[in-house]
Amino acid sequence: MVEMHEMVPGKRFDRYHELGQHAFGEKLGLWIVVPQQVIVEVGVNIAYMITGGKSLRKLHNTVCPDCKPIRTTYFIMIFASCHFVLSHLPNFNSISGVSFAAAAMSLTYSTIAWTASVHKGVQPDVQYSYTASTTAGRVFTFFSALGDVAFAYAGHNVVLEIQATIPSTPEKPSKGPMWKGVVFAYIVVAICYFPVALIGYWMFGNSVADNILITLENPRWLIAAANMFVVIHVIGSYQIYAMPMFDLLETLLVKKLKFTPCFRLRLITRTLYVAFTMFIGMLIPFFGSLLGFLGGLVFAPTTYFLPCIMWLAVYKPRRLSLSWFANWMCIVMGIILMILAPIGALRQIILQAKTFKLFS
C-alpha cells in the first residue's frame, strides 16, 4: 500500500477507497472498500472503548482495593468523556502529539507487563492445556485466535491517510520516510507483543486474561501505572482510527446531503460518533471475543487480501513470480481467516452475553 500510494505519476491516493476505485473502478471500488473500512474503524474504536474502560476499572481497583466496586460500563463512559473533547481536533497532524504519547505508552506498559510476570514467576497451579473441554469448543477457540492475529496488525487500514500527511516531491517521494516509519512501527509491535505473549503464557498458562495487566496484582503501584499507560495509549489509538471516520461522515453530509460545512456540523457529527461507539462498547464489553470477530470479519480482507488483489490488478506481475506467489498466498490466508475466525468468536460472544448484565 505504501508503494501504491503514488503509483500514478502526479497523483496521490490519500484514502483507502481512492486506491480501491483506481483498482476496481469508480463505483465498484467504493462498494468493495468503504463498507469494510467503516466496520474496521468503528469496530476498533469500540474495542478501544472497552479496553480503556477495563483498564480504568483495574486502575481504580488497584489504587483503592477497599472501595465499592464499580461496573465496567461506568468506566467506559468515563473513558469516553475525554474523546468528546479530543475528537474535535481537525486532522492527523493535530493529533501527532497524542499519537506519540500512545506509542511511548505501549512500549512502557508492555515492558511492565512481561517484567512483572517474570517477577511473579510461574504459578504453582499453572496449566497449559486447552480451556475448552470439548473438541468443538477447542476448534471454535482456535478459529477465534486466528481473528486475534488478524486484529493485531490493523494499521494497514489507515496507512494511506497517514502517508498523505508526509510531503512528497518527484525527487523525494513520500514512500521513503513512510517505509522507515512502517519498519520502525513493526519493530515496536514485535517488541511489545512477543515478550508479553510468550512470558505471560509461560507464567500463567491458560488462566491468563486477554489483558494480562488484569491478571497481575503486585506490585500495586507498578500495575496501577501500567494500566494508566494503557489508557493513554488507547486514547491516542482511538483518535487515529476515528479521524478517517470523521472525514468520511463530514464529507458525506456536505457533498451528498448538502449540509453547510461549519463548526456546529463537526461538533454534532463527532460527538454522536463517540457516543455511538461508547454505547456499543457498554453493550458488549467482551474484549477478547470482539477482537477475534472483527479480526476475521473485516481485518482479514482489508489487511491481507484486498491490498494484494489491488496489487495484482494494477501491476499484473508475471505468473509464478515471487510477487505473484506472495500476493496469492496472502489472499488465500485472508479468505480462510475471514470465514473461520468470526464463527469461533461469535460463539464465545454468545456464551459471555448469556451471563452479562449492563448496569446491575
From TrEMBL:
Transport is among the record's keywords: yes
One Pfam family linked to the record: Aa_trans
Domain Amino acid transporter transmembrane as annotated: residue spans: 2-345
Keywords associated with the record: Amino-acid transport, Membrane, Transmembrane, Transmembrane helix, Transport
Membrane-spanning intervals of the chain: 28-51, 72-89, 95-114, 182-204, 224-246, 267-287, 293-314, 326-350
Record InterPro entries: AA_transpt_TM
Major localisation: membrane
Compartment(s) where it occurs, according to its Swiss-Prot or TrEMBL record: Membrane
Keyword Glycosyltransferase in annotation: no
Name by which UniProt lists this protein: Amino acid transporter transmembrane domain-containing protein
Species of origin: Vitis vinifera
